[in-house]
């Protein structure tokens, strides 16, 4: 069945499935069920309250929250009002959140906790378009105003207001759903670019619905399935494959209580499916390791439960030995591939057709080809509308309808393999993405740091090679130490301690995964003579990382 927009999908499923469980979430130690009827009713109440607040079709509404029931309700509510969801990752700093809300021109904002609210309030004077904030946690009891213009409300109060106004706005909401076309924006999702500021990926209702339909036709969920979601809904991976896909299938979506409780939640829920990133599967495998294959299989099955049909991996490359270990234990771990700009799935291994060393065949309806320089290109209804307020970047990314992914790959017997990265974007084992040159720029802005190279592709934390600005650094050191040779200073713990403080200060406003956890101090700067720099003094990153591979690897071994 095809749908014009996501609110139509939500409405039809509620009409057909009514009392069946749609969502399951944990609160006060117990899991609670939400029916399709209840899901729809609360989403409509949210939509009515937004209409009353003056939200018009196409207006942007922000979301700054960890995974929770209210995230899903607010998402479907603002879409039903014809608005555009602008979700920010919950670990982002106040300054990072400010950029996204300001760039998108968000008029209203949903936040989860006091901590998230405080982030926004610290920069709210620089958000002139923001008119109201709704706080999911119940500590906000009464409506408040800030500086005479910003309304702050509790979620419970906001929903209650919407229920009272639903009859008043019923016809308007129906009209908005009818007018909401496939090419209208559903969300703007910010993803790292080649500069410090991220780019807002514009995804339409058609982008998301087509990707859901193609994934379902390739390897579908049934109405009896139960899928556990713990990946952040502020990422397109969970948003499409967990949220909208389970809604289209009519099966149960269970929200893990937190990333730290996934194993416990698996034991209690015993899902049939779960999507995750490689890092999770690696950690579970390491935790249950056994030299006896039968014992390893028993332990893995004990973690994931008896009902599991298959596991899905995305967001970062899945190491082949990990996939093989799961397969040998009787658990099929299938890898897929995609980008935020492709809604996100481009290719995916199927249970009946897979190669563990690949990211699977392209989805039916998705075109993939390899450019002359080896770059993976994709075309189809899943490709984004463009980058918000950035036509230059849009033109660079989409040419003749083909999305240039920035990844290098090959097509072998219909299976796509990713062989490297053409663009600079770094992907960690958790699936988190960052631009190393941006972090390096923050580091070398410190007067005591001359050069910096960040490392962490496929890893769970960042390391760095640091070349101090020795003249400036000596001024900060105790006088007896300042006279030492640079080779001796590079090994001195007092130098490392001082640099650690300065690195932390330089990275104050970046997210947790962008922090440099360990570093090596180098006595001599990178040079053209050593082939570490080009003649125009640009860093030869691969040369440097290869040269210092042993030092970098040692930091992860330690």
What oligomeric state is this?
A: single chain
Q: What share of the residues lie within helices?
A: 25-40%
Strand count, sense and barrel status of the largest sheet are: 8 strands, mixed
Query: Quick one: how many beta strands?
Result: 27
Shape: globular
CATH homologous superfamily of the largest domain - what is it? Answer: ANL, N-terminal domain
The tally of helices reads 20
What's the average pLDDT? 93
Radius of gyration, in Å, reads: 25 Å
Q: Tell me what portion of residues adopts beta-strand conformation.
A: 15-25%
Number of domains: 3
CATH class of the largest domain: Alpha Beta
Please give the CATH architecture of the largest domain.
Answer: 3-Layer(aba) Sandwich
From the helix content, strand content and strand pairing, which structural class follows?
alpha/beta
Strand neighbour order, sheet with most strands: 2-1-12-11-13-14-15-16
Low-confidence parts = none
Instruction: State the distance separating the first and last CA atoms.
Output: 54 Å
């Amino acid at each position: 069945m095809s749908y014009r927009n996501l609110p139509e999908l939500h409405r039809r499923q509620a009409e057909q499935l009514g009392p069946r469980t749609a969502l399951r979430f944990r609160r006060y130690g117990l899991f609670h069920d939400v029916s399709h009827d209840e899901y729809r009713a609360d989403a409509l109440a949210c939509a009515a309250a937004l209409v009353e607040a003056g939200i018009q079709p196409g207006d942007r509404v922000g979301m700054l929250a960890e995974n929770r029931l209210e995230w899903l309700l607010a998402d479907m509510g603002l879409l039903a009002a014809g608005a555009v969801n602008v979700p920010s990752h919950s670990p982002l700093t106040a300054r990072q959140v400010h950029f996204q809300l300001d760039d998108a021109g968000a008029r209203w904002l949903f936040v989860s906790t006091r901590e998230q609210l405080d982030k926004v309030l610290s920069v709210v004077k620089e958000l002139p378009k923001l008119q109201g904030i709704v706080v999911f946690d119940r500590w906000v009891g009464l409506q408040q105003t800030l500086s005479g213009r910003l309304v702050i409300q509790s979620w419970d109060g906001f929903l209650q207001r919407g229920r009272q106004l639903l009859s008043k706005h019923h016809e308007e909401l129906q009209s908005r759903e009818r007018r909401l076309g496939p090419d209208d924006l559903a969300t703007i999702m910010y993803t790292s670019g080649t500069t410090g500021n991220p780019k807002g990926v514009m995804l339409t209702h058609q982008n998301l619905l087509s990707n859901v339909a193609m994934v379902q036709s390739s390897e579908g969920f049934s109405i009896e399935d139960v899928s556990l979601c713990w990946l952040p809904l502020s990422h397109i991976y969970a948003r499409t494959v967990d949220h909208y896909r389970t809604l289209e299938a009519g099966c149960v979506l269970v929200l893990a209580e937190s990333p730290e409780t996934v194993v416990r939640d698996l034991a209690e829920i015993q899902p049939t499916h779960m999507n995750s990133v490689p890092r999770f599967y690696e950690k579970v495998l390491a935790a249950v390791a056994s030299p006896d294959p039968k014992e390893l299989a028993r332990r893995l099955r004990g973690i994931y439960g008896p009902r599991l049909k298959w596991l899905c991996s995305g967001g970062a490359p899945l190491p082949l030995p990990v996939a093989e270990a799961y397969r040998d234990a009787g658990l099929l771990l299938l890898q897929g591939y995609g980008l935020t700009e492709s809604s996100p799935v481009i290719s995916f291994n199927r249970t009946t057709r897979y190669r563990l060393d690949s990211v699977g065949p392209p989805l039916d309806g998705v075109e993939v080809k390899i450019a002359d320089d080896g770059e993976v290109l994709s075309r189809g209804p899943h490709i984004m509308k463009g980058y918000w307020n950035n036509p230059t970047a849009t033109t660079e990314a989409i040419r003749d309808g083909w999305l240039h992914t920035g990844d290098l790959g090959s097509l072998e017997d219909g299976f796509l393999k990713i062989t490297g990265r053409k663009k600079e974007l770094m992907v960690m084992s958790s699936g988190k993405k960052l631009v190393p040159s941006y972090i390096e720029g923050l580091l070398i802005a410190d007067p005591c740091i001359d050069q910096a190279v960040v490392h962490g592709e496929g890893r769970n934390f960042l390391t760095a090679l640091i070349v101090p600005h020795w003249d400036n650094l000596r001024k900060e050191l105790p006088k007896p130490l300042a006279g030492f040779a640079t080779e001796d200073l590079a090994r001195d713990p007092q130098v490392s301690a001082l640099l650690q403080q300065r690195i932390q200060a330089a990275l104050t406003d970046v997210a947790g995964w962008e922090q440099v956890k360990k570093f090596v101090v180098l006595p001599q700067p990178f040079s053209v003579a050593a082939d570490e720099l080009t003649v125009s003094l640009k860093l030869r990153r691969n040369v440097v990382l290869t040269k210092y591979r042993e030092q970098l690897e040692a930091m992860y071994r330690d």
